[in-house]
Design goal:
The complex is a heterodimer. Chain A has 13 helices and no strands. Chain A is mostly helical. Chain A has one domain. In chain A, helix 4 runs antiparallel to helix 5. The longest helix of chain A is centred in the N-terminal third of the chain and has 39 residues. Chain A is globular, with a radius of gyration of 20 Å. The N and C termini of chain A lie far apart (about 50 Å). Chain B is an alpha+beta fold. Chain B folds into two domains: about 40 residues; about 100 residues, Alpha-Beta Plaits, CATH 3.30.70. In chain B, the strands form two sheets. In chain B, strands 2-3-5 form a three-stranded antiparallel sheet. A two-stranded antiparallel sheet of chain B has the order 1-4. The chains are: A mainly alpha, B alpha+beta. The interface between A and B is medium-sized, with 15 and 20 residues.
Amino acid sequence: MTLAIVFWAELAIKIGIIAVAVPAIGMVLGFAEMKLSAHMQSRIGPYFAGGRFGWMQLMADGLKFMQKEDIIPADADRPVFRWAPALPLIGTMALLVIIPISAAEFGIIQDLEVGIFYALAISSLSTIGVLMAGWSSANKYSLMGGLRAAGQLIAYELPLVLAVVGVVIQAGTMSMQGIVEAQTAQAWPYVVTQFLGFAIFFVAALAELNRIPFDMPIAESELVMGYVTEYSGFRFLFFFLAEYVNMFTMSAIAVTLFLGGYWFWGIPTDSALLGVIVLLAKSFVLVFIMIWFRWTFPRFREDQLQTLAWKWLIPLAVLNVIATGAFKVLL
Amino acid sequence: MNKPLGYGLLVGMKVTFKTMLQTWMSIATGGRKGLQSTVNYPKVKEVPVARARGVIALDQENCTVCMLCARQCPDWCIYIEGHKEHKEPTSPGGRVRKRSTLDRFDIDYALCMYCGICVEVCPFDALYWTPEYEYSELAMGDMLHDMDRLQDWMSTVPDAPEIEK
């Protein structure tokens, strides 16, 4: 009886942490994007809301979205249209679960033996949501956006997985905790030996996230807003939130796999607080690079996008896997 | 010399990073150094150039109710009504003269697209551009400026530039 209570209480706390973390991360990153983009374009960015620095801008935006009318097009496939925005957010929340924040007992929400496999599988969920949104909107732009997202997923899931395989071979485990522990043991992050894998993972992750320069599914100049064209109000906010939180989770996974996760030279790994700080700092560096990319590079053409994945990233990733395997066997 | 692969990407990233640092510098020093293309609008106001197209002012004295502006307006946002008045002859035995008088001259700025054709077409210089730009309203209907309000804008019309030699 007591065991059951402990289980449910633990579960409630875990759900609470995720439920708080998702909007908080979304707001911080959304605000960072607003400010950094402004500064990269010689603008000031939001500065009025909240008195100083415009720190309440994102909350004001959220409130605005909540007031807006929830419009469903007459020809839309109603149940699919209504549930599509939930999927990317569910996928994001499910991803946050397996990110290790420290070596302590409560350092991870759920340590899985197949952690990274689960992460790669669940990260495709958001693309299903995108495809559902595109299909059910009964709008040509939405449909094109959804199809592009699907094509992009197929092209970039492969290099993403293959880049991870190198790390898994080197660490000898698929558990996220195990991978960080392996890096802690050798006191050297995997990015040194797996630099090619890291680069491929980062590029493929950008494509998975539909971030510029891979934002073909929502290319404004061609497709209005792609699969979110018909969405308004709170459902639009869901897509928006999922995009930003996904940016963080993908960065956190990249940090865990390649940059040593919560480990850093000279910082004890068994303290949850220090672990969180190290992980957040590393992830935010990657997020900053993503934002930096977005405000620097123009969008790829659809064929260039496919060429990059099939002709460059996948062969390179396969080479990386072969080389890593050979070193693992020989050394 | 051949540039290495990805060189152009790095150059682009350098540009944005440099711009960001310059903007930070500019904000830190209160906009005195570096780039900063925008200002904190309601607190700090930009001074528009003298020939900026802000709002259109009407000089009622010059208007002859010829309707050219209303007819040329692509948006049909100018509404003019007028009537003819008889003017008594100035000297005995003279002819009674007619004078067109404005009853109504409204410009609906909710419709106006600031093309300036009305200003161009006016044969008697009754319409002028002014650089004033702060006349937003809470209700759409208040964007319709009547002829008294348009006359008031005349005070903001800048002096005509000197004739070039």
